[in-house]
């Protein structure tokens, strides 16, 4: 029962993470291109204030629940798949923290001053990082769906005692 609850939390949190990043990639980024630069910068800066807390919580929950699922899943392909999902959510966090967040800081400054001449290149890098974190979150969610579809069960004491890794 415990593994099903953890799996449910992992599915929910990675689904929310992939959905939030996916919405941003599919809707916000094209909208950013359609509005004047000043409007984009102001909106982007305000959006990051809200996203800072919610997205960090989603990334943390997705990582911890996927990692916990890998530990509870026993051995074999199930553990590897859940472990891969946790690494992908960690990748989403690292891409965000070291790719998007520093650029978000620049965008905040530009929103109250002005964008430098090379702003298009910097915003293009932000979009690349956004695409990368979206794909890693989506892949993590997909792996957890695969586990749900194939069936997931905890390792039994007998399997653990004999080191059964065949699942």
UniProtKB/TrEMBL annotation:
Spans through the membrane: 53-73, 80-99, 134-152
Highest taxon in the source lineage: Bacteria
Keyword Transmembrane helix appears in the UniProt entry: yes
Keyword terms of this UniProt record: Membrane, Transmembrane, Transmembrane helix
Record's protein name: DUF1772 domain-containing protein
Phylogenetic lineage: Bacteria, Bacillati, Actinomycetota, Actinomycetes, Kitasatosporales
